[in-house]
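User: I'm putting together a teaching handout on how sequence relates to shape, and I'd like one worked example. Could you take NADH-quinone oxidoreductase subunit H from Actinoallomurus vinaceus, show the sequence you're using, and then write out its predicted structure as tokens right after it?

Assistant: Happy to. First the sequence, then the structure tokens directly below it.
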Amino acid sequence: MNATHVLAEGATLNSFGHDPWWLIGAKALVIFVFLLLTVLITVWAERRIIGRMQLRPGPNRAGPFGILQALFDGIKGALKEDIVPRGVDKVVFFLAPILAAAPAMVSFSIIPWGGVVSIGGHKTPLQLADLPVAVLLPLAMASIGVYGFVLAGWSSMSPYALLGGLRSSAQVISYEIAMGLSFVAVFLFAGTLSTSEIVAAQAHGSAFKVAGMTFHTPSWYAILLLPSFVIYIFTMMGESGRIPFDLPEGEGELVAGYHTEYSSLKFMMFYLAEYVNMTTLSALCVTLFLGGYRAPWPITWFWSGANAGWWPILWFLIKIWMFTFFFIWLRAALPRVRYDQLMKLGWKVLIPVSLGWILFVSAVRALRNERHDVVPIMLIAAVVALLLLLGSFVWERTSAGEAVPEEAEAGADGDPMAGGFPVPPLDAPHYHGVGNARASNSAEATRA
């Protein structure tokens, strides 16, 4: 690409659909290469950072600081013997890794990584495509990606892989609902579902008057819509299937989950899908909540040209790598949660909170459109929300500390099977019923 000059312009929907075929192909190729290189760098950085956090060196042999280790691991994995177990559904078995990896790459096509520049004499936005409903594309691709995990588990004809596929489908669907709900508040404030226009909407904050004084809201939706941002962070971890939410591939109980029976290049495709998905989710978060490719406020305050030309690519990459470090940090610091805790968080916490937050944001937007004073209403709503949270916390603590049921108390000095939970007897001769009968039978067998 030969850039003749740069323009300090932001992209809109009208900026798309005018590129020649070679420029569209070049953008697609750049995105593909960028995602592959990002996977290699992320794998290396993850091993080095976690090694530093856990007081061990990490890869340090292949290349300076082990920087070529991820590349050599990928080559080695692709060249290993490809073992296909007997009895698998071969067509589905081969298609599943492709269905897992391809949708994550397609989702990156609607991510803007810069404004409008001139390449080869053509004014073009640094974005492959944009649509009036562009943000819905990653949600659709995530739904298609689930098929890769489910079909991988089903076609393997293995109980471990099947359970991993079922876990993955339940987890991704649950957190995809909460993720979609976290986007609604952004749509309400930006007034559009186009990613380029959402970034443009975060260029400047809005102003409103209260008691004759003018107040300016923050430009980034991560600050203005903080609950939506926090909910997205949780759903981002659930969608990526990484620690602490890596239940579909829990090694302790499922060996490796849905890809237990895979090897060689097909296994590497699942590995690639995980890291590409992590990069895509980070880029989507940057676009919707952190101003996209635009430089943060301290930089734009003293440098007016920070968002002109090719510089936005730098700010975009810095923001993505901040989230990548966040992913790595969580993996090094947090243990895996239980599966019931994972589903409870998604269905009983994130989705209800998202619905309540959407209702509140919708009411505030409607009142502001009618020129009403929304500050007292926001204060009342904040107090009500705080009371509800406090009441739910007290109720949870109270229900957790309830007395043991009567049938369980009866089992304390009676049948160890009482209450539905098999408890091995501590001193069998003193128990009546099951424990005593087993002890008597054991004693008679010994005398015989």
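A couple of points you could highlight for students: The radius of gyration is 27 Å. The chain has 16 helices and five strands.
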